[in-house]
Write a structure and sequence with these properties.
The chain has twelve helices and twelve strands. It has about 325 residues and is an alpha/beta fold.
Length: about 325
C-alpha cells in the first residue's frame, strides 16, 4: 500500500514513520499543498493523505480519480475542504480522525484566554527590557465570569470542565444537547442568550453552511460590550471584517485566534522574510488586544501520535475490510 502525504512537515514524517512500524506501508512525504496543479503527483499511489489547508474540490478530486486514487485520508477532524458529493460520485472514499486529543485544543483555548486577560506576552517582553511597570497589564478574575461555548462536542465539553475548575459559570449552545452537559454543570441555552450573558465566548463547532460566519455584525451586536472572543475551531466561523469593526468600536475587548479564514497561504509556513500581502490579517495584528497563534492548538505530541495511529488504522481497515468507522459520507 503506497501512501502519498501532501502538506507534510518534519513532525508528520516523524510520527507517521513511527506509527507505520505496525503496518509496513510505503510512505512518501511532500511539502507542497494538494491542489489542481499538484494532484498529478498522486500517480502510482493507492492513498492520498491531506491536511486542513489542502484543496480537495471537484477539479482536484477528478484529477485524483484519473490517477486511480480510491481513498483520501484526512489527518484531521474537519472536512470542510472536501467536496463530499463529488468524491461520492467518483467512488473516492473519505476517512478522517474524528478525535485526536480534545485536551490539546481545550488547553490551548485556555492559554489564549489567560494570556489575553493577564497579558503575560506583553509582560514577558517588558521584563526582558528591564521594564517592570504594571501599567496596562491589569486583568480580571476568571472566577465568577460567564463563559459561553458554541459547540459542545468533545473539545467543547473538555473546555467546559476546565472553565468550571476556574469557577466560571458556563453556558453552552449546540444543535444537540450532550448528556455530559448536565454532569459538568453546563447551562444549555439559546445562542442569543449566550451572546447576551457571556463575558467570554469560545467557538468549538465545525464549519458547515449553517455555521459559516456565525460571528458577524448581527451576532456581535448582541454580545456584551467588552466581550472576549476566542476561536480555536475553523477560521470561517468568523466574519473577520465584522470582528475588526467590533474591535474598533470596543464591542470586542479581547480577541484570541488560532485559526483564520484565509490562513491557507499563511499558516504552517515561515514567512518572516516576506511581506505579508493579506491586509485584513495585518489589520488584526495592529490591535494590542488581539492574540493570534498559527493553528497550533492541536500541536501536542499526544495529538500527533493519535493522528498518525488513527490515520494509518483507517487506511488499514479500508485495505483489509473495505469497511471503516471513520468514513465521512456526503449528506
Amino acid at each position: 500500500m503506497k501512501i502519498l502525504f501532501f502538506s507534510a512537515k518534519p513532525y508528520d514524517q516523524q510520527f507517521f514513520t513511527q506509527s507505520n512500524q505496525e503496518y509496513g506501508f510505503e510512505l512518501n512525504f511532500l511539502e507542497v499543498h494538494l491542489n489542481s496543479k499538484t494532484a498529478v503527483l498522486a500517480k502510482g499511489y493507492d492513498v492520498v493523505c491531506v491536511f486542513v489547508n489542502d484543496t480537495v474540490n471537484a477539479e482536484v478530486l477528478q484529477a485524483l480519480a484519473e490517477q486511480g486514487i480510491k481513498l483520501l485520508a484526512l489527518r484531521c477532524a474537519g472536512y470542510n475542504n472536501v467536496d463530499l458529493n463529488v468524491a461520492d460520485a467518483l467512488g473516492i472514499k473519505i476517512v478522517r480522525v474524528p478525535a485526536y486529543s480534545p485536551y490539546s485544543v481545550a488547553e490551548h483555548t485556555l492559554a489564549l484566554i489567560l494570556t489575553l486577560n493577564r497579558k503575560t506576552h506583553r509582560a514577558y517582553n517588558r521584563v526582558k527590557e528591564g521594564n517592570f511597570a504594571l501599567s496596562g497589564l491589569m486583568g480580571f478574575d476568571l472566577h465568577g465570569k460567564t463563559a459561553g461555548l458554541i459547540g459542545l462536542g468533545k473539545i467543547g465539553l473538555v473546555t467546559a470542565r476546565i472553565l468550571k475548575g476556574f469557577g466560571c459559570q458556563v453556558l453552552g449552545y449546540d444543535v444537540f444537547k450532550p448528556a455530559e452537559a448536565d454532569e459538568i454543570g453546563v447551562e444549555f441555552t439559546s445562542i442569543d442568550d449566550l451572546y447576551a450573558q457571556s463575558d467570554i465566548i469560545s467557538l468549538h463547532c465545525p464549519l458547515t453552511p449553517e455555521t459559516y460566519h456565525i460571528i458577524n455584525d448581527s451576532s456581535i451586536a448582541k454580545m456584551k460590550k467588552g466581550v472576549m472572543l476566542i476561536n480555536t475551531s475553523r477560521g470561517a466561523l468568523i466574519d473577520t471584517k465584522a470582528v475588526i469593526e467590533g474591535l474598533k468600536n470596543e464591542q470586542i475587548s479581547y480577541l484570541g485566534l488560532d485559526v483564520y479564514e484565509e490562513e491557507g497561504d499563511l499558516f504552517f509556513e515561515d514567512l518572516s522574510n516576506n511581506v505579508i500581502q493579506d491586509d485584513v490579517f495585518m489589520r488584526l495584528l495592529s490591535f494590542n488586544n488581539v492574540l493570534i497563534t498559527g493553528h497550533q492548538a492541536f500541536f501536542t505530541s499526544n495529538a500527533l501520535q493519535k493522528i498518525a495511529d488513527v490515520t494509518l488504522k483507517n487506511i488499514s481497515d479500508y485495505h483489509k475490510q473495505g469497511v471503516f468507522p471513520n468514513e465521512v459520507k456526503c449528506g
